TrEMBL record:
Subcellular location: Cell membrane
Keyword Transmembrane helix recorded: yes
PROSITE patterns for the chain: ATPASE_E1_E2
All residue ranges annotated as the P-type ATPase A domain in the record: 108-201
Membrane topology of the entry: Multi-pass membrane protein
Protein name: E1-E2 ATPase
Keyword line: Membrane, Translocase, Transmembrane, Transmembrane helix
Length: 820
């Protein structure tokens, strides 16, 4: 507690020391202890103990037990994938833990008849608190006395107009004092305050749902039911191939049997797809960061591709939250240049109060840019929310500015046409003020007894409006072209919001349909039906914004929600994708998946386009990985049924996977692609993967079945002949991998063709480098092996073409798209 602070005189005494101590002891202080629902331990456990990690780790341990560490290099993908996931979620947790709507600072409270300064957290229930201009209200309170307090509650209600408060009225934590001051009594502190209640709801951890990750996890779960029994069967079949358990243990062939079984299992798990998904999300996030767009959850990049419904908060999104001076329209008899200049000078002086409100500040800024400066004022009547007008006296002329309907009601004569003109401007989204003047002697008690002279003459209408972002119209046009339905949801008057929606052409050439949210039904399904025909909603409460998102979800829409205020936080949390402006409330930014750091609405097309690129390309390259899953499962099944030695080792699949799947997939995933994502990722990818996978599996099995007989090999007894068979099968696998890569990368008449040729050459070159060839046990067929190898390659190419042709015929007869 600091020294005494000088404030206005008041009879209120405030709490004494014993009352304060009792409240502190009972915990009725302005502190909030809520935190995120996930601890560091939970985050680490969720990313380490996954089904994918369990399968790969078990396989790696089995290989290491055999002593064949070269065949265990596939396990490093676990470490990279875990690191990406843990770092991302720890960042999200840190952001949520720092979440606070209220700005921590010192405040002045009245205790024991003295005004003292205390910290934000030291305010207690029933404290008498001073709220001064520029301060944020730290706790819910009731007005005791006021000296023209005017609050900005837009962060809480979405209503962009400032509000004058009178004694007995309630003020909410999170609102900001724009002008004046007040003495208030605290009625709710800490977790019980309005702002803290919203914060607590916003802090609940919500994992972004990824259709891509769901598809991958579905594959992993399905493969688990196959992998475990198949692994056991593979080990058993390989042991039988080498003479049974007794012979395998005696000769050490059990090691080869285990490594062979792992080769079959690892091939069935699309480990590279899991890693590539995380890396691709991270790269997209880094690219967006260069454009001042912060992605706080990597999976949300994918959600961007699926958005078909965008809910926009007006203030801070379409408008920048500021007020701008528009027209000053002269009325009858005041159209001369001299008269107009005198009117504008009077407007400047009327607005030049000690602490002008938002409208007054806009007039000062607008006229100041035109060269107007403060003039001589003999007397001033400041704006009052009770009077709804302000006035100044300059010589023998009294100028009055305020609400048109209030001023006109006090004037002589019929001014119906003037009010019609006012309403027309108001319907176009303007805040309209009326300027009148009266020439004549001013009463001596005018400053203590201000009044409107009925003979005053209307001089001009003053139009102010919210500043519309220059990029809003073009951005909305882009979304219309992309088939994304945009709606404006605001706490402001629906007429005002509708006018702004017309200005930015929210619905193109069609007139936007506006509605007052107070007329919305409570039933979610009925609300969903109503929303289909509505473009603009005004007077929307925070809970209604959330309900609107829920209603759109019932119609299977993927909803994005933008906003900057605390009133938007619940809806942003409920939406599939929450987007906050950089100047938003800390709570809103912390729970949003995407933050437009420089608050530019024009970044949203970049954000959506990047999401579409990621998802469209990941769907394209996922086929590469699933082809390997299909042929690995088919080969494993064939090996178990026919009890032949497994035709390749884990190191072979690592080499082939890197050159025909992993590295080219990463490059293809970064290519430009703006195709909008369509649900059904997993089904389309499976349809794509089956032909190539079946062709590859059959080609390898045919080589493993018939080549030893043609060559007269006994691969069960001769390690050298088994190694040669592995080498031939590896060549077949590599060629088929290049075929599949060419299909995924098509059309090949661009850099994509060069990409395929480069990796094909790299694979051949690797076999010619001694270190690489020795490490991965690669061979180049020569002598008697060459001709059978070429025949096997030719047969494999024919098999691939036949399977592809059959698949094309089947797909063309169905509604399922086969090309990606």
């Amino acid at each position: 507690m600091s020294a005494t602070v000088s404030m206005p005189e008041t009879a209120e005494q405030g709490l004494d020391a014993s009352q304060i101590a009792a409240r502190v002891e009972s915990g009725r202080v302005n502190r909030s202890q809520t935190s995120t629902s996930r601890s560091i331990k939970d985050i680490v456990r969720a990313n380490v103990f996954t089904l994918f990690n369990g399968i790969i780790f078990t396989a790696m341990v089995l290989v290491l037990i055999t002593g064949s560490w070269k065949d265990a290099v596939f396990g490093f993908v676990i470490l990279v994938n875990m690191a990406i996931g843990i770092v991302t979620e720890l960042k999200a947790k840190r952001t949520l833990d720092r979440l606070s709507i209220l700005v921590a600072s010192n405040y002045v409270v009245r205790r024991e008849g003295r005004d003292v300064e205390v910290a934000h957290n030291d305010i207690v229930l029933d404290d008498l608190l001073w709220i001064r201009s520029g301060e944020q209200v730290p706790a819910d309170a009731l007005i005791v006395e006021t000296w023209g307090l005017e609050l900005d509650e837009s962060m809480l209600t979405g209503e962009s107009r400032t509000v004058r408060k009178a004694p007995g009225e309630q003020v909410y934590s999170g609102s900001t004092a724009i002008s004046g001051m007040a003495l208030v009594k605290v009625i709710a502190v800490g977790e019980h305050s309005y702002a803290a209640t919203l914060t607590a709801q916003a802090k609940v951890y919500k994992k972004t749902v990824s259709d891509l990750n769901k598809g991958i996890n579905t594959i992993l779960k399905f493969m688990t039911f196959i992998v475990v029994p198949l692994c056991v069967l593979l080990v058993w079949s390989q042991v039988q191939t080498f003479g049974g358990w007794e012979a395998a243990l005696a000769t050490g062939k059990w090691r080869q049997a285990t490594v062979s079984a792992v080769a079959g299992v690892v091939g069935m798990i699309p480990e590279g797809l899991v890693l590539l998904t995380s890396l691709n999300f991270a790269v997209a996030a880094m690219r967006l960061a260069r454009k001042n767009t912060l992605v706080q959850e990597l999976e949300s990049v994918e959600t961007l591709a699926r958005v078909d419904c965008l809910n926009l908060d007006k203030t801070g999104t379409i408008t920048d939250g500021g007020i701008a001076l528009g027209q000053v329209v002269p009325l009858d008899g005041s159209s001369g240049e001299t008269a107009q200049r005198a009117a504008k000078q009077a407007l400047f002086d009327l607005s030049n109060e000690g602490q002008p409100n938002g409208t007054g500040a806009a007039i000062l800024e607008g006229l100041g840019e035109q060269g107007f400066t403060a003039g001589a004022v003999d007397a001033r009547i400041p704006f009052s929310s009770a009077r709804k007008w302000s006035s100044i006296v300059c010589g023998s002329t009294t100028w009055i500015m305020g609400a048109p309907e209030v001023i006109v009601s006090a004037l002589d004569g019929d001014h119906a046409s003037l009010l019609e003109q006012v309403n027309a401007y108001a319907d176009d989204g303007n805040r309209v003020l009326l300027l009148v003047k009266h020439d004549g002697e001013v009463p001596g008690d005018y400053e203590t007894n201000p009044h409107l002279d009925p003979s005053s003459t209307p001089v001009a209408l003053v139009m102010c409006s919210e500043r519309i972002r220059t990029d809003a119209e073009d951005t909305l046009a882009w979304f219309r072209q992309q088939g994304v339905r945009c709606r404006v949801i605001s706490g402001d008057n629906p007429v005002t919001v509708g006018a702004i929606a017309r200005k930015v052409k929210l619905t193109g050439e069609r007139e936007p349909v506006a509605m007052d949210a107070r007329e919305l039904p409570d039933d979610i399904n009925e609300l969903a039906r109503v929303l289909e025909g509505v473009d603009v909603l005004g007077r929307v409460l925070p809970n209604q914004k959330k309900a609107i998102v829920q209603a759109l979800h019932t119609q299977n829409h993927v909803v994005a929600m933008t906003g900057d205020g605390v009133n938007d936080a619940l809806a942003i949390k409920e939406a599939d994708l929450g987007i906050a402006m950089g100047n938003a409330a800390p709570a809103t930014k912390a729970i949003a998946q995407v933050v437009l750091v420089d608050s530019k609405f024009s970044h949203l097309p970049d954000v959506v386009a990047r999401g579409r690129q990621v998802m469209a390309n990941m769907e394209r390259v996922a086929g590469l990985f699933l082809v390997k899953t299909v042929y690995s499962a088919l080969i494993a099944l064939g090996v178990v049924l026919t009890q032949i030695p497994f035709p390749y080792q884990p190191r072979h699949i690592t080499y082939i996977g890197a050159l025909t799947i992993g590295m080219p997939a990463f490059i293809l995933a970064l290519a430009p692609n703006t195709r909008r994502y369509i649900p059904g990722f997993l089904k389309r990818v499976i349809y794509f993967a089956l032909p190539g996978g079946i062709a590859t599996g059959l080609s390898v099995l045919c080589a493993a079945w018939f080549l030893p007989g043609v060559m007269g090999w006994d691969v069960q007894r001769s390690d050298a002949q088994l190694t040669t068979l592995h080498g031939v099968v590896t060549i077949i696998l590599f060629m088929m991998g290049i075929f599949v890569l060419a299909r995924v990368a098509s059309p090949l008449n661009s850099w994509r063709g060069i990409l395929v040729a480069a990796f094909a050459a790299a694979g051949v070159l690797g076999a010619c480098i001694p270190f690489v060839a020795n490490f991965f046990e690669l061979i180049i067929p020569t002598g008697a092996v060459l001709i059978p190898t070429l025949i096997a390659l030719a047969g494999s190419a024919v098999c691939f073409a036949v399977c592809l042709g059959i698949a094309h015929c089947l797909i063309s007869q169905s509604d399922t798209p086969g090309a990606m």
